[in-house]
Amino acid sequence: MRFALGAMTGHKDAMTPNPEPPLNESVEPMPAAQAAAPPAEAPLVPAILASRCPRCAKAPLFAGWVRFADRCRACGLDFSQFNVGDGPAAFLILIVGGLIVALALTLQLSVEPPFWVHILLWVPLTSLLVVYCLRLSKAALLILEYRNQAREGRIAPERTTAA
Questions:
Q1: Cα–Cα distance between 107 and 82 in angstroms, integer?
Q2: Beta-carbon neighbour count of residue 90 at 10 Å?
Q3: Cα-based distances in Å from 128 to 45, 75, 133
Q4: Nearest CA to 104 among 126, 71, 129, 128?
Q5: DSSP of 73-97, one letter per residue?
Q6: Measured CA angle at 68 (ends 97, 128), to 5 deg
Q7: Dihedral (CA of 133, 50, 63, 145) sign
Q8: DSSP SS3 for 26
Q9: By CB distance 3.0 to 4.6 Å, which of 30, 115, 125, 128 could disulfide with 75?
Q10: At a CB cut-off of 8 Å and minimum separation 6, what does 125 contact?
């Protein structure tokens, strides 16, 4: 049982349990009238940390540790329409890689530990940071795509004007 996103936003029903439907239960898409009026958006950082559906904030975004679910189990939003792509991985290579290299160099220059200490310290730390940050950055990009209604670019057909 999970708790509603209201816990992070200070909503009055913050601690009400939010039961999730079982995975094998079929979900009907949200009616058009209800889908047109989304709930008030949570601030971006709490929404990313909660990793919930950007439309209803009830069902989780992920089916695995870093794999998106096909669709929201609560409202039926199709997550496959969003193109997160390789953006999160590229950012993580630069940010986490730079951070680990800086920390490893600092440790080496200040203490000069044996090489095996570097292996035992930096390999697990890098792995944990990459997996955790990949989940957060993928959630961030999907939520931002939804909020900004970002779609794949299209070239508009040329308009012909009557002379």
A1: 41
A2: 11
A3: 20, 32, 8
A4: 126
A5: TTT--BGGGS--TTHHHHHHHHHHH
A6: 30
A7: negative
A8: coil
A9: 30
A10: 100
The answer to whether 72 touches 53, Cβ cutoff 8 Å, is yes
Q: What is the DSSP letter of 72?
A: -
Distance separating alpha carbons of residues 101 and 25, to the nearest angstrom: 47
Q: Are 49 and 32 in contact (CB under 8 A)?
A: no
Q: Which two tokens stand for residue 84?
A: 């997160």
**How is residue 68 annotated by DSSP?**
B
Average pLDDT across each block of 10 residues of the chain; the chain has 163 residues. List them in order: 44 45 49 49 88 92 91 92 87 92 97 96 94 92 91 73 65
CA 67 centroid distance within chain = 10
Could you report the per-residue pLDDT of 11-30, keeping only the tens digit for each?
A: 444 444 444 444 444 445 55
For the chain, the structural domain boundaries read 1-81, 83-150
Q: Please give the full DSSP string across 111-156, using - where no structure is assigned.
A: H---HHHHHHHHHHHHHHHHHHHHHHHHHHHHHHHHHTT-----PP
Report the amino acid identity of residue 77: L
Which pLDDT belongs to residue 15?
44
Task: For residue 149, give both structure tokens.
Answer: 């209604």
Residue type, 29: P
